[in-house]
Write a structure and sequence with these properties.
single chain; Histidine kinase domain-containing protein; alpha+beta; Heat Shock Protein 90; 6 helices; 9 strands; phosphorelay sensor kinase activity
Length: about 230
């Protein structure tokens, strides 16, 4: 009798590859940082673009790993008491130089004493994802604000770009969900990840949510993450 060949778990292989790629990409980012520190005048625009794209891809790999763990029930929420302003300021540190070099003003409107409870690693990835998007589409302003509303933390990221496309807003409002579509120019991985992060945060049978609209700065885009 022929022995059965062992089945190949492609999801595990993918997760392993993503992990290795993330490590390699981190080395690329660190090398670019070293080059910039040692010779800030050597092709500044090209280097900053490489740094931006590298960090964007790195964040996507982080999201893929998290989604893999969530899908396989291997991710365990680490809810901690967090000073929201300190957390946001620390999360934004890698973005500051890129924003400055593009003359994009970054504003934080969060009370110094605001405390809330959430998984810092997941929310950090959400902020990185939306700020990366704002960096690409804003004119010259990005603002991050947070406040409590009806026992929810409302974290908003706004810009003064042209806003989200109407078709995207209509689809989001109609379905109230996000999905991945590989047949379009954008897979929607970022918003899909943000939705999963929101859904994971629950309190007294209430789940988190995300919202998109064009009520940002001067009609620009606004992303809102609500955490109960």
């Amino acid at each position: 009798m022929d022995e059965k060949k062992p089945s190949i778990d492609f999801s595990s292989i993918l997760a392993s590859c993503v992990h290795d790629m993330k490590n390699s990409l981190s080395m690329v980012i660190n090398t670019l940082d070293d080059i910039t520190d040692n010779d800030a005048h050597a092709h500044p625009e090209e280097i900053e673009r490489l740094k931006y794209e590298s960090k964007r891809v790195n964040n996507q790999l982080v999201q893929l790993l998290a989604l893999y763990k969530i899908g396989n029930k291997q991710y365990f929420l680490n809810i901690t008491e967090t000073n929201v302003r300190d957390f946001v300021e620390e999360t934004l540190i890698p973005h500051v130089d890129l924003l400055k070099k593009r003359n994009i003003a970054l504003k934080i409107e969060i009370d110094n004493e605001l405390i809330w409870y959430f998984d810092e690693a997941l929310v950090k990835s959400v902020i990185n994802n939306i700020v990366n998007n704002a960096y690409q589409y804003t004119k010259d302003q990005v603002c991050i604000s947070a406040k409590l509303n009806n026992n929810n933390l409302k974290l908003c990221i706004t810009d003064n770009g042209n806003g989200y496309p109407e078709e995207m807003l209509h689809k989001f409002e109609k379905t109230q969900k996000t999905s991945i579509n590989v047949n379009t120019g954008s897979t929607g991985l970022g918003l899909f990840f943000c939705r999963q992060v929101a859904d994971l945060h629950t309190n007294k049978k209430k789940s988190g949510s995300i919202e998109l609209d064009n009520n940002g700065i001067d009609g620009g885009g606004r992303f809102t993450l609500s955490l109960p």
